[in-house]
Amino acid sequence: MYIVNMIKTINKAFSFRLYPTLEQEKTLASFFGQARFVYNYFLRQRIDYYATNKGKEKQSLNYHDTAKMLTELKRQPEYIWLNESNSQSLQQSLRHLDNAYNNFFNKRTEFPNFKKKHNKQSFLVPQHFDIDFEKKLLHIPKFEPIKIILHREIEGIMKSINISKTPSGKYFASVLCEVEKVIKPKKKGNRIGIDLGLKSFFVASNGERVDAPQYLRKSEDKLKRLQRHLSCKVKGSNRRNKARIKVARIHDKIFNQRNDFLHKLSHRLVAENQSIFAEGLHVKGIMANHHLAKSVQDSGWSEFVRQLKYKSEWNGVCFGQIDRFFPSSKRCFHCGWINESLTLKDREWICQCGQVIDRDFNAAQNVLLFGQKMVGRELPKLKRSGRGGAVMPLVELRSPFQSLIGGGSSHSMEENNVRI
Ligand SMILES: [Zn+2]
Question: What's the CA-to-centroid distance between 393 and ligand 1, angstroms?
Answer without folding.
Answer: 32
